[in-house]
Amino acid sequence: MSVSVKGSGLSVRHAGGWMDGHGTGVRARLYTVYQGSRTDLTRWKDATPRTVGMTQFSDVDWNLHGKRFSIGTWLCVQFKNFDDQPCAKIQR
Question: So what's the pLDDT on residue 92?
């Protein structure tokens, strides 16, 4: 399971995540944590199952249109019904 964040400085253009394995009904959402407070950033979204060679995974992404975050904000992806929730720290 992983998170991907693309942007410049404190602005994020795209964010997403992927997890090993296929599955129907795999869903994910983005949330932030800043100064100990969690805020849901997106609603639940269906992940897309993919196969590349022998590797199967599900991925999901969002266009955040250059949304700006405060320094030190954690941007995280949560897959429904899974405990792992990878995060990336927003820095200059």
Answer: 85
Do the Cβ atoms of 12 and 5 come closer than 8 Å?
yes
Q: What is the pLDDT of residue 24?
A: 74
The Cα–Cα gap between 3 and 60 comes to 10
Retrieve residue 58's tokens.
């599900």
3-state secondary structure of 5: strand
d(CA 49, CA 11): 28
Distance CA 84, CA 77 (A): 9
Q: Give the pairing type, strands 48-52 and 45-46.
A: unpaired
**Tokens 């800043």 -> residue:** 34
